[in-house]
Inverse folding.
């Protein structure tokens, strides 16, 4: 059932503001990142809907967005939503059982990595019509152009919703790892919904955007918002991967006071840090060692986590878990006991950290909780010794020890045979808890009903031994007390689903054991159930103590937030740090972030486009995906590896035009070289700062507003450079590798993850939420292309085209399906019936049956065979100027001008005076970058003049393939263009029309690029998603080629028309991909991409990059 | 889609009727009676025909299958025009000797098949070069895959050339078997 609008959308237009997605989950194929889940029972295998937002990482990655089934040759086989593995990289949904059973693949190719896609896959095999059984929607639009369209048979049971493994980010059979970002995943069991349940068109920009799904989910439905709860109470667990470089570990949800870290995949000591002893000081639970200090270990406790230095426990590619407790906000002196203590306490969550100096004699120590602790863990910081543990179930006569396996040992020297009170706990004279003059720390836990539990149980040696805590535990630590055994810790972050069994041992440095199968334990909503028989946790008759803390997170990237609790399990490289603020909805603290741009880089970025290895191959560079022209921006680049050789890192900012240039040679930019610490400013060497190398983090603060750039080496400023004027189209990150046979490896952070160091005041991370708003947020209000089908010649049919959405002032029409018919150009100043043809030199003439009028929302057509041939397909490109013209006396020739400075477009008519160097006012208030002049009175070439290649005024002719030449004339100013006295521009008494275009940031751009002769052609950054692009080679004869997003609504664009030819449309050659921020040449026809050829382009926007989705 | 005066109205976009501006959420939350009062009607959208085969998504307007030598409305052959500047003061477009040909779907799809095959083969072309230059054998599975790609391209080209109409061509195009 397709239910348009039946599910009311929270946050939809008019319902109280935009719906914001704050985070996404980064899937790193090189770290085997994926989520997994197996339904407990089968759902509706015939009817379901999957909706998710996706941002592409590695371009050629064809990874699995969602899949089910582990066996490709039997049973339910594998059902998968992924990208086609052949050349297309197109979104596909298919079923495989010993061969492809059915497959639907879009013709649209998804290889735009700079913004977000919205995908909706709707399956309903009950439909009688085969094409209704599988529907694919991209950015709210159903894909009816399909590369493969082999549909399932009616009532086919897919593998999805069967009781087999399901995966996000990897096919459950272990293949097809995904690289990119995913967020806002909704899976609806039993309903076939269209995108209107998950999104809407923005009422201002017209761009498809997310909306909160509020319908029902069905039994196996789930909702994964892919974000962390940033306001957790009391206790939380986070995971991270070591980088051996400074990194902030966030996502704790509070500022932790006790952080207990353990490597999961390697034998390594447990390390405990607390805010009372201070950062950089650690104790090891599996060791008797005294406290140690390392300036490069945990370096600070932060608002939402903690920071790691370059040392243990932050070893490269080690996976870590950190258990974190909140002990309140201040440390105070406590005199409740006989020993004065320093106490940081959080009575609401029953936890305090107590620091005191031992006396060597029986004593009491204030703990600040206000209720008696149920468990106390004590460690002598000054001297070696065991970790002494008091537990209420053991009583006050003995203790167990965290670092060893012993059963309870009885001694009055431990806790002085005295039970803790609401104010103090007692200690005997044991060195471990009361060494004279020794610094001691005690972690005190009191039970908080519904949040923490400290109890005991008896082992049964059998499944089903249930321990009730009264809440869903996030953390359980168990110790057998009647005989020797290891301490065991389970948590629901490392393993979010049951059965659990990922065991770590506080008394051992051993890596994590995966005992989910042989020693399964379920963490339930009310406690935990031991379903095994083992001495450590559930041997028959054994006595066990435990501590447990509630999971207070309301959501997490693996938690189903639909209400069904169909929670997923993170695997591989998925850690807390995989959540990033890169999202499809720009907002104050996030949005679509810059990444490395594989379309514009010599080297292929990996790790969801945040890592790259640069070698010596020309052009040696990797560049970012955003080039802001103003603002203050901060970016960090970690120099991960020098390949074992000298440090040849090069990092800086340059223009996109320099993206293919060796970084030290860029003609417009500043880069910082590692080898000598020099700067290269516009290619010239300038002495600057310190050398740097492998292991260093380089922060770059780029102040485009004040022409300043500052490089920081590991947070130390190397000085603010002010000798460069940053101007023009904008600057983006560039990195490269110097003259060495090895390579430089970089990890980039534009701010989607917490920066290693705090950015300087006023500097922002580079994401769309921080980009300035463009003057034009919906390009279709000023330029719009429409298609229509002729209904005139040879009949007398006429029609009105009413989908332009504004009254056009300049209309350019071409018959797409029939060759030999001219391009028709009409404008408001000449009148709608006055026609010029771009592919001829002919005079303007009146065609009373062509465009007969310009209307409020389009134009009307007569029965002309040139613009309304029956059943022929036509394209109309329409620009908005400013209606009927006004007189303009800015130039030496008085002109009539219809000018739209907002859109940088004006139509100008004038009469030549035969004087070379005459000037004509254009009304734009900014110098046109390109203008096109046509003599209306006599045959003459179309003069196209521009300054966009080298700043000088060059010219070509629109009806001609001829190469460009220098005009040798004065460039236009903000008020006039210069015309010479030839027939093309200024013959005395001849009438002329000129179309003038000046760039408007985010809406139009006119520039040049150099071809490379490859299907992996040049990338051109526009700062917007183009609607129209016309290109022309300037250094040799070739065509004026036009492509647009209306005739080619998806990539790859392959429908060329040529302004200088009457040919029909041809679709046999790939031209380019339009992307959210520019276009990428995807073919090598001579008219767009001859190696070494120079090309100019004119481009107009659908939407600025800030608001655009991927295409 | 909603229409008024035969013009489509987009959900979530403001629109103007007469002198009245209606907010972006009006269509979503208005009643059927409200919409009827303004003359707004609902028309179920026909599924857009595949633009690769049909002009403007119109199932009744298929693109031409065969290459077509263009003629003018009087039936005279048309030629590619070129610029004649022999009289600099009167540059004109004149016919060349080249007939103006509009490529049909068959030509375009055969070209596309060649592009697809070429792109797929390109990923292992280096192995062919390596064998030629250094006599390093190409793995058997790669040899087989390359042969399969070439065979599929050949099959498709023959099948496309044999198509009698657009429906037949769509069937061929939708059943490409380039492998998994």
């Amino acid at each position: 059932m397709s239910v348009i609008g039946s599910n009311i959308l929270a946050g939809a237009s008019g319902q109280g503001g935009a719906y914001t997605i704050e985070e996404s989950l980064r899937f790193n194929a090189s770290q085997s990142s994926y989520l997994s889940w197996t339904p407990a029972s089968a759902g509706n295998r015939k009817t379901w809907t999957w909706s998710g937002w996706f941002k592409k990482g590695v371009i050629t990655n064809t990874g699995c967005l969602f899949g089910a089934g582990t066996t490709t040759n039997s049973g339910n086989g594998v059902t998968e939503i992924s990208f086609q593995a052949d050349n297309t990289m197109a979104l596909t949904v298919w079923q495989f059982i010993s061969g492809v059973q059915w497959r639907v693949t879009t013709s649209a190719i998804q290889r735009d990595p700079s913004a977000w896609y919205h995908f909706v896959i709707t399956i309903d095999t009950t439909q009688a019509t085969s094409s209704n059984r599988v529907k694919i929607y991209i950015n709210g639009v159903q894909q009816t152009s399909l590369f493969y369209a082999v549909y399932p048979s009616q009532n086919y049971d897919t593998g999805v919703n069967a009781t087999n493994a399901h995966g996000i980010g990897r096919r459950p059979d272990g293949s097809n790892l995904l690289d990119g970002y995913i967020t806002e995943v909704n899976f609806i069991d039993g309903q076939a919904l269209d995108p209107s349940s998950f999104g809407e068109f923005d009422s201002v920009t017209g761009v498809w955007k997310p909306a909160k799904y509020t319908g029902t989910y069905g039994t196996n439905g789930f909702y994964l918002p892919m974000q962390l709860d940033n306001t957790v109470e009391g206790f939380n667990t986070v995971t991270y991967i070591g980088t051996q470089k400074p990194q902030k570990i966030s996502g704790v949800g509070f500022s932790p006071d006790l952080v207990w870290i353990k490597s999961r995949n390697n034998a390594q000591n447990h390390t405990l840090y607390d805010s009372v002893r201070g950062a950089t000081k650690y104790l090891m639970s599996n060791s008797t060692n005294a406290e140690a200090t390392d300036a490069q270990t945990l370096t600070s406790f932060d608002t939402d986590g903690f920071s790691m230095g370059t040392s243990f426990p932050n070893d490269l590619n080690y996976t870590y878990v950190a258990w974190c407790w909140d002990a309140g906000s201040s440390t105070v002196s406590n005199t409740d006991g006989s020993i004065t203590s320093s106490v940081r306490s959080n009575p609401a969550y029953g936890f305090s950290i107590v620091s005191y100096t031992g006396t060597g004699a029986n004593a009491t120590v204030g703990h600040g909780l206000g209720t008696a602790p149920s468990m106390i863990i004590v460690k002598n910081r000054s001297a070696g010794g065991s970790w002494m543990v008091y537990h209420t179930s053991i009583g006050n006569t003995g203790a167990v020890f965290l670092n060893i396996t012993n059963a309870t040992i009885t001694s009055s020297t431990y806790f002085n045979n005295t039970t803790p009170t609401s104010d103090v706990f007692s200690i005997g004279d044991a060195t471990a808890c009361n060494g004279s003059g020794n610094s001691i720390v005690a972690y005190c836990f009191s039970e908080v009903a519904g949040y923490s539990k400290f109890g005991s149980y008896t082992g049964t040696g059998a499944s089903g031994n249930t321990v009730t805590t009264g809440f869903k535990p996030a953390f359980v630590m168990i110790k057998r007390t009647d005989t020797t055994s290891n301490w065991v810790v389970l948590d629901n972050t490392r393993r979010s689903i049951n059965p659990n069994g990922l065991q770590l041992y506080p008394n051992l440095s051993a890596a994590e054991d995966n005992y989910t199968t042989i020693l399964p334990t379920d963490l339930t909503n009310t406690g935990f159930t031991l379903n095994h028989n083992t001495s450590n946790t559930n041997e028959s008759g054994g006595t066990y103590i435990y501590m447990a803390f509630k999971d207070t997170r309301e959501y997490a990237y693996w938690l189903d937030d639909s209400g069904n609790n169909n929670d997923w399990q993170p695997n591989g490289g998925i850690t807390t740090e995989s959540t990033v603020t890169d999202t499809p909805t720009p907002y104050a603290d996030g949005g679509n972030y810059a990444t490395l741009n594989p379309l514009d880089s010599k080297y292929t970025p990996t790790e969801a486009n945040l890592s790259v290895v640069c070698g010596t191959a020309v052009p040696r560079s990797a560049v970012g995906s955003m080039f802001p022209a103003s603002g203050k921006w901060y970016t960090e680049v970690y120099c991960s590896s020098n390949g074992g050789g000298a440090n040849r890192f090069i990092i800086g900012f340059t223009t996109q035009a320099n993206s293919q240039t060796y970084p030290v040679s860029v003609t417009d930019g500043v880069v910082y070289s590692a080898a000598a610490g020099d700067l290269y400013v516009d290619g010239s060497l300038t002495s600057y700062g310190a050398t740097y190398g492998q292991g260093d983090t380089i922060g770059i603060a780029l102040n485009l507003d004040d022409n300043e750039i500052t490089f920081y080496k590991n947070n130390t400023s190397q000085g603010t450079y002010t000798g460069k004027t940053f101007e023009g189209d904008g600057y983006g990150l560039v990195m490269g590798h110097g003259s060495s046979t090895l390579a430089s490896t970089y990890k980039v952070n534009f701010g989607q993850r917490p920066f290693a160091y705090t950015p300087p005041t006023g500097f922002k991370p580079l994401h769309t939420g921080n980009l300035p708003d463009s003057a034009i947020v919906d390009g279709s209000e000023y330029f719009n292309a429409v298609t229509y089908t002729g209904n005139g010649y040879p009949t007398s049919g006429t029609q009105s085209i009413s989908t332009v959405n504004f009254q056009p002032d300049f209309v350019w029409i071409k018959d797409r399906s029939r060759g030999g018919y001219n391009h028709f150009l009409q404008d408001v100043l000449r009148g709608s019936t006055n026609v010029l043809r771009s592919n001829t030199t002919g005079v303007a003439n009146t065609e009373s049956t062509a465009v007969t009028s310009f209307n409020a929302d389009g134009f009307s057509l007569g029965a002309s065979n040139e613009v309304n041939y029956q059943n022929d397909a036509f394209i109309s490109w329409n620009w908005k100027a400013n209606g009927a013209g006004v007189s303009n006396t800015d130039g030496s020739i008085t002109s009539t001008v219809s000018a739209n400075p907002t859109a940088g477009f004006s139509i100008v008519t004038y009469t030549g005076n035969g004087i070379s160097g005459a000037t004509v006012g254009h009304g734009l208030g900014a110098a046109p970058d390109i203008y096109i002049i046509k003599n209306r009175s006599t045959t003459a070439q179309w003069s196209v003049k521009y300054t966009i290649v080298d700043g000088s005024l060059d010219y070509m002719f629109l009806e001609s393939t001829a190469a460009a030449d220098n005009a040798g004339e004065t460039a236009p100013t903000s008020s006039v263009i210069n015309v010479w006295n030839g027939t093309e521009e200024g013959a005395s008494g001849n009438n002329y029309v000129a179309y003038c275009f000046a760039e408007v940031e985010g809406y139009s751009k006119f520039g040049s690029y150099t071809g490379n002769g490859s299907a992996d052609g040049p990338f051109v950054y526009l700062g917007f998603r183009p609607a129209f692009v016309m290109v022309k080679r300037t250094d040799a004869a070739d065509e004026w080629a036009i492509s647009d997003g209306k005739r080619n609504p998806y990539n790859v664009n392959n429908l060329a028309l040529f302004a200088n030819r009457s040919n029909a449309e041809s679709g046999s050659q790939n031209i380019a991909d339009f992307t959210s921020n520019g276009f990428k040449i995807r073919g090598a026809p001579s008219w767009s991409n001859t190696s070494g050829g120079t090309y100019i382009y004119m481009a107009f926007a659908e939407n600025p990059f800030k608001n655009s989705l991927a295409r | 889609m909603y229409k008024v005066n035969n013009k489509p109205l987009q959900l979530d976009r403001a629109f103007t009727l007469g002198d009245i501006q209606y907010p972006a959420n009006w269509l979503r939350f208005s009643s059927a009676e409200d919409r009827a009062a303004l003359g707004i009607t609902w028309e179920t959208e026909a599924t857009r025909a595949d633009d690769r085969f049909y002009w403007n998504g119109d199932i009744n307007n298929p693109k031409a299958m065969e290459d077509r030598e263009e003629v003018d409305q009087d039936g005279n052959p048309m030629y590619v025009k070129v610029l004649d500047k022999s009289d600099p003061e009167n540059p004109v477009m004149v016919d060349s000797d080249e007939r103006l040909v509009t490529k049909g779907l068959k030509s375009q799809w055969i070209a596309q098949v060649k592009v697809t095959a070429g792109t797929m083969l390109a990923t292992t072309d280096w192995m062919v070069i390596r064998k030629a230059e250094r006599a390093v054998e190409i793995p058997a599975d790669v040899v087989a895959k390359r042969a399969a790609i070439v065979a599929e391209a050949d099959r498709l080209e023959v099948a496309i050339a044999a198509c009698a109409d657009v429906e037949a061509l769509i069937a061929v195009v939708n059943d490409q078997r380039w492998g998994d």
